[in-house]
Amino acid sequence: MARLPRLLLAPLALASLACSAATLPGPAIPGTCNGAEALCDRRFDQVAYPTTHNAMSTTEAGWGLPNQIHGMPRQLTDGVRGMMLDLHEWEGEVHLCHGICQIGSRPLRDGLGEIKAFLDAHRGEVIGLCLESYVDAARVKAVFEQSGLLRYAHAHPKDAPWPTLRELIARDQRLVVFTDKDGGAFPWYHDAWQHAWQNPYAAATPADLSCRVDRGAKDNPVFIMNHFLTGAGGATQMQAEEINHDPFFTARALRCQAESGKLPNFVTVNYYEIGDLFRVVRVLNGLDPEPPIL
Fold this sequence. Notes:
48% of the residues are buried. Strands 1, 2, 3, 4, 5, 6, 7, 8, 9 and 10 form a 10-stranded mixed β-sheet that branches. This protein has 8 helices and 10 strands. By secondary structure, the chain is of the alpha/beta class. A hairpin with a 7-residue loop joins β3 and β4 (105-107).
């Protein structure tokens, strides 16, 4: 399959930001695709997306061992366009949990409802979900239907070229779902490792971060780039401070692109609020690293 030409090997100014807060992209621009007209005619697999690891696990909601500060609606408003979510059976229904539901959980239908509300209100936005599921596909489908989010789901045949963002927006199929369990049970419920691949996710120190293939095949068009640290006590903001800032972050993303020959699509972090996630994604997309001020 054709791949996005490498836009990213030209010299880049990688000045580090002194503050720890994220550089947020500002409000979406009407008439654009994920905030930029230049992205409209690129295929789904030719675009990088700011992505949150365990997007449901937040300080704001009082979860134990959180991975983010703000909840999912704020993440979407701030510019996050990819979310990793863990699904478990809990108290008789499908919940978002990170392994131990006792320290943090919420019904999946509520989280999906928040995503639907965002898509309802933002006609030019495309969102990807990466599900780590411990629930049968039929149960998951039922919740997608109940939430109303299923109406936005795109069904993509294996080995077919991905549509462009413009095409997904025109069809109003602005949600792409990948799962590591029961993928392919429904046309829209994509087997993650038939369509995508990822680098290793278990990194305890910056030196452990690798660009090698962990799951899936590198010939798959979608690259999930894990960029987070996890210690025995879970994710911490201090760990995010170590790796979420430039010049380290952009340099690593470019290295993974150069080593794999693939654009990092889902650029996945803990504590997106810290560091330069949005700047890195703009660089990967060949855009001005600094967002426009509206």
